[in-house]
């Protein structure tokens, strides 16, 4: 670990991003991601942590099961949509039928080169960053590879300073926006999925060139509701709780809502966040939904 830029006993910094030490990946391993074998038929999910990764995994798995019923795998979503930078869970290069699905939190400069060269279909899921902050706070309490925050206020400051898992949300969004015209990229807003799941699934199917019937789309949407995922062992990551990846008695799925930040931010924190957001996202045309009421 001496060659790593340690920012805490749990995280090291590499290329401006923060990775879990316990995940077992080294800077050399992360560099080798550039040369990972990629197929034109692959589909990649990109998210900043806690932006809807598990939700999009479920949606894509269900779309592919409907489109390719002969290739349905009896396995959980974590294995069916492995992380390319994951070091201790699942092998994203294991033999799987096309189209292969995988996910990542890394920025464009660390993606396999083939994603851009072969114009691999890539879905970027974005969530309003105030809820990302709150969700990542709770995830840090639950996930054994991350340090338990001493307080929400301290975690808030660390998030704003880019000192939490994967670094700065603002940098992540800006870097993908700058590269969007070089990639085969489809944006999905977490809050739009809350407001109109069917409409968003239809857009994703069109992007993926999967012509599903109305009945099939209905099944995808229904199986991907928060309540259904929470009770589905293939989607809710409960196996990680059983194997000690989550701290005891901590939920693997929490609320799945938009606007929970209002229960945590002080007035001063909200004003500061808005100021930083305006400064850092200047020139990036974002239409952020900060709350979706039931």
Structure description:
The chain has 294 residues and is of the alpha/beta class. 39% of the residues lie in helices and 10% in strands. It contains 13 helices and seven strands. The protein has helices at 27-32, 53-67, 77-80, 113-117, 129-142, 152-160, 169-179, 190-195, 197-208, 214-223, 226-230, 238-242, 267-280; strands at residues 5-6, 11-14, 17-20, 43-47, 101-104, 121-126, 185-189. It is globular and about 50 Å long. The mean pLDDT is 89.
Strand elements, count: 7
Number of helices: 13
Unreliable parts = none
Give the SSE order as H and E letters.
EEEHEHHEHEHHHEHHHHHH
- In spatial order, strands of the major sheet run 5-4-6-7
Shape: globular
Give the distance, in angstroms, between the N- and C-terminal Cα atoms.
47 Å
Q: Assign the structural class, choosing from mainly alpha, mainly beta, alpha/beta, alpha+beta, or little secondary structure.
A: alpha/beta
Classify the helix fraction into a percent range: 25-40%
**Could you tell me the mean pLDDT?**
89
Residue share in β-strands:
5-15%
Q: Main sheet, how many strands, which sense, barrel?
A: 4 strands, parallel
- Structural Rg: 18 Å
Quick structural overview:
By secondary structure, the protein is an alpha/beta fold. It has 13 helices and seven strands. Strands 5-4-6-7 form a four-stranded parallel beta sheet. The protein has a three-stranded antiparallel beta sheet with strand order 1-2-3, with no helix packed on it.
Describe the secondary structure blueprint for this structure.
Blueprint: E1 5-6, E2 11-14, E3 17-20, H1 27-32, E4 43-47, H2 53-67, H3 77-80, E5 101-104, H4 113-117, E6 121-126, H5 129-142, H6 152-160, H7 169-179, E7 185-189, H8 190-195, H9 197-208, H10 214-223, H11 226-230, H12 238-242, H13 267-280
Parallel strand pairs: 4-5, 4-6, 6-7
Antiparallel strand pairs: 1-2, 2-3
Helix pairs in contact: 2-10, 9-10
